[in-house]
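Why does this matter for the project? Reviewers at the last site visit asked to see concrete outputs rather than summary tables. In response, this paragraph embeds two records directly. Each consists of the residue sequence and, immediately after it, the corresponding structure tokens. Nothing has been edited or filtered.
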Amino acid sequence: MYFYVRNNKGMIREKIEELRRTLDYHNHKYYVENSPEISDREFDVLMRELQELEAAHPEYADPNSPTARVGSDLTTEFQSVEHRFPMLSLGNTYSLDELHEFIGRIEKELGQTEFVCELKFDGTAISLTYEHGALLRAVTRGDGTRGDDVTANIRTIRTIPLHLQGGDYPDFFEIRGEVLMPYASFDRLNREREENGEPLLANPRNAAAGTLKQQSSAVVAQRGLDCTLYQLAGDDLPCTTHWECMRKASEWGFNVSDKMRICRSQAEIDDYIAFWDEERRKLPFATDGVVIKVNSYTLRRELGFTAKAPRWAVAFKFKAEQALTRLESVDFQVGRTGAITPVANLDPVQLAGTTVKRATLHNAEQIALLDIRVGDMVYVEKGGEIIPKITGVDLSQRPADSKPFEYITVCPECGTPYHRDCYKKEGRCINDELHSKHMSWKAEVEEKEQAEGLKCSVCGNTLRNDQLFCDKCGTPTPYYLSQKDKADGEEQESFSNGDTFFNNAEQNAMETMYPYMLNYSDPLCGFSPDEKYDEDMTTKDIADFIGSNTRFYLPKFRVMKATKFKLSFNIPAMLFPEFYFAYRKMPLLAFLVLLIKSIISIPSSLMGMKIMLTEYGFKDALVNMYPSFEAALTKVAEFSVTGGSFNMLYNISSLVSWVVIFIFATLSNYFYYKNVISKGSKIKKSAAASGINVSEALKSAGGTSAALLVTFIVLYFLSTYAVMAAILLIV
């Protein structure tokens, strides 16, 4: 009821802020310090409590609440934002000699210089802006001058603090870092993609960058991203060296690498590089080199920048690991969308601490570019790639009888013709529709008579009467189109009888079939009008009874009929179930809902009345208007809402309210479905017996009622005042 959301605002807000502080603390202990103090279950209980309070009190919304970690399904258009401090790239080198020249040049100009060495993380760069200790904005590198605002997605990364710890941080500053996808998250994501028949992601770097650009932050939250920060930027930093600033950043709650080292000589830098060139294989995330930076900010300002990069830092890149092995054969994998990917089968070889037996060949163009042939000795590389790839061929070891590789011309799954030019155009196997109908290609044994004058409409090739695809260009033939129409007719017939469509309810959830079977330009959604839902009601009858919004209800009713699954979401019924049922001509159910809500709202109404009388000063005014109620109003104003019994009653009523909301949000469509079938069957029988037009009778009895809706709106407000009056009378 009305007073359900009007409770002690001060108490609620304090509770919300307390929960946020507690969750921020435990989040940092778990994800950054790796020293949790409470169990996952205890953390989840606190998170659910906060989510419920925030949902009930949107006026206390905070974009940096811990609940932002779970993300949102709302689509976000990324806005371009100009960097306050340009995000320049670093100069790279693969040579120790070039690195020594860099160090020598700096020391020649500045004298002996202190450097900081740190790992070069292989992810995607990010700039985080904080204002008064709270995350304000997160922007990608972009072109170095402007980047995309990905704040909503960044909030889901648990190693990024939404609120800083301590109090000695600047009011406004930026911190740069790298968004990473740990190996564990990457492996899990690729397993899921493989199970779904999707192309595998090449490396964690690409996976992290792609994830950060997801339109749904809820998807980002599930991907398990991490973030390591490595550079402060601002006008009023609390320290004079990079090392000191990173220690400060760690104290504020940022995830700063503990692999950083101060190096005061060329030899120390070389030792750091040599150590991590070997040890990096033990890290849980990808690295591709070492960054060497001048430690002093004063010296950095003296050195300045070039047009593209700072003169006080350089990145030393590790060499990619390679192995030489023999290409035994090539397999072709068909993905869910019909995409065909060639995969090399290799003589097993050790590479980067693992045994490699297979490597991606990407596509036909890559095979042709490298001139890869079965039997070749090939170079396999990982580098930053988790999935091995072939990068070259040792031509000196090529067998004399080797033959150029011939890319497949038929689908490896069903044997139907597979034409690469058509695939490039369509983005899938050209026979994907036949695959989905479980049809397979049967090669012709005998040469059949060719139809005189029957030509391919694209290339002019002569065709057979029963030829499905042109064997020259792969274009579907008239015979294919006729078979497709026939298959479509058979599919529609199976829909009509209603028994053969669902052989396995769990496997054939109706929603997954919508792209193939629903026609939203048709009020019947493309369903057969004669398909029966019980012994009396057909699709046409149900549509007549529903009246409006058949496109919303019919698919859901069909799922309920076929799978016996009752749950589906209905937003109007979640918000105002009594109004929904009244509008859909279900007055008894509407009245029952109104009664239930009135009863469970009594505790919240009592609390609301107390707040109205005390905090908002309405008591005196009401006493003047209704002097006979002075004693009752005084008792309500003095009523204690902090007592144990009342708190228990209030909490129980709140719990029951959420249960009621869940029931009506998920089961209202089912209630309406049963009402349609029950009432519709009776009306249809009665109309048939009386000689009345069945369709008109169903339309008249069903549909919606604005009059009932208005009636229950009035009853809703009357019940609110009735509850208040009952409280005063009881008191």
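We now turn to the second protein, recorded in exactly the same manner.
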Amino acid sequence: MYIIPFLMSFSWQTSYLFSISIKVKGCDIMTKNLVIVESPSKSKTIEKYLGKDYKVVSSKGHIRDLATTGKYGLGVDVDNDFKPNYIPVAGKKKLISELKKLVKDSDEVILATDPDREGEAISWHLLDTLGIKDTNYERVLFHEITKDKVLEAIKNPTKIDYNLVRSQETRRILDRIIGFRLSKLMQSKTGGKSAGRVQSVALKLIVDREREISSFNSEEYWTITSKFDEIEADLFNYNHKDIEINTEEEADSILSKLSDKYKIESVERKKKSKKSKPPFITSTLQQEASTKLGFTAKKTMSIAQKLYEGMDIGSETVGLITYMRTDSIRLSDEFVGNTLKYIEVNYGKEYVGFVKKSKKTENVQDAHEAIRPTSITRTPDSVKEYLTNDEYKLYRLIYFRALASLMKDAKQQLTTVILDNNDYKFKVNGSVITFDGYLKVYSEFEKSEDKILPDLDKYKSDNLITDKVETKQHFTEPPARYTESSLIKEMESLGIGRPSTYATTISTIIDRGYVNKKDKKFVPTEIGIETTNKLQEFFKDLINVKYTAKMEEDLDNIAGGTVVWNELLKKFWEDFEPMVKDAFDNMEKKEPEKTGEVCPECGKDLVKRNGRYGEFIACSNYPECKYIKKEEKKVVEVCDCIKCGNKIVERKTKKGKVFYGCSNFPKCKEAYWDMPTGKKCPECNSMLVTKDGKVKCSACDYKEE
């Protein structure tokens, strides 16, 4: 009789630390703690940390989404304050029932989905769908999946941030309205597969760049270089003015005025600091992984997710990096303190640097830190054996970027030598690293080569005699096509989309057949250009950089509580819907190209169509007739299989990506992404392949020089 009051005296938070079980008249009284995360792999890791008093389960992402009913199938009541109609995600009804039962049997529910807008929305959907009482739940944010930080987060719960939820919900409704309405339009008028708020602007950037390249007029220019024993000097100035040489005649005229003697006019030396870059945020990680590792944005985020959620590294399971969706370069005081001590012990006091400060105002996505290792003592080499090669490469990049950001600047001595020849000025530049600083650990990822000049002081009163004077013709080049890295950088600088969505956006425009990749650069397809042209004609005030960036700002303001979500949607709809109706009425329909063949099933014309996996031939009478012409597969033999002796042939994935596999599949499962040579690696006997003109091993680190 006195046990129950005793139990009631415990604070509500006590249940986070332990559970109490006692018998009263043969019944168990137990405090049960149910933790819901969105990822199955994360749930396993966290349950190990929390112990038997907690049950950790996964929602496996979103459990519900907008329906496809109502006006235009939007799942949103546009005539009633844009009220959304949510339904369970396909295949999730059983899971929802199981979660409801677990909630009913639990005294406390802890919603621990990802610490961002999307995660906040998932938590709210769980709260609403599972019938969790407002008084019977806590919201917990795991910024890193380590035992100490998980336990700390459990002790410091919060509640759902409904402004964040509204921000995500508004984004989802906007994307649904624009995506559904414009995609339907494009499908009926151009043959394009889809259009969207962010993807169409990203596509426009690529198309606009291609137009710049096509219209670019290359201009001729010349350079003059004087070569000496140990140095080369470039002409840059005449009579105190920068010089431009536009023709060969001009270059020859200058040559005729030069003697073979050059006087050293000045030798200037100055010191310069070379600063390390801040730790990674989502966008810079995607950019750097693309340029340094050759990873797509999608691949980078997939690997980073695994590193964050928890890896088995011998005797423990631990998240190796902090949450990978962030716009902040902030580092925790604890990490900074530990890392500065680590630098001093392992590299010396002279290498200890300082914390980088952000120059921009951080927004609502910046509640968490930069992307960093969860422990600076957990070096890449110490966990290498537990990671795949790609996981190791990305963890290594993240680790050394964070470490370098807290190390001293590198020091350079820059030398500039000016040579005079009849008032024509030639310049020589040199540089020497005098203190390596952060380059001690980051030189692999940031090349900085010395250009050492000879001691020229002794020549000040004498003349230098040239060995050779060389003229060279050049032509100005058009702007480069976008790579994944440069496109992400441009989208970020313009405020288009969010870093967390860049990977999906890029994958979408590739999968839709709007762009192809050539030498890792984006080239718009015919249908991509056509789609952009039509959107530009009818939606120029909507599908553009400024409008999309302003929309992102408004969504941030909803999260900040300064903009009302449905008022924003109302204003958008009033502008958008008349444009759509006008486009349906007045956009010229592009008829598919006829092949000159007739359908064997209904006798109508066969036409060329574009699909997710490229061009195909089908009946013009679709959807009444669904005939699709099957193309004969051409077998391209590449070389002999080194395992079974059969032929390695060219194949394609469902998405049209080329790979090379054994013709004896499935008995022999040899396959390669890069072109196989038919030769064995001298170190491990695996297949040698070619990539970017270089021969390397498909299995080990061997490369041909």
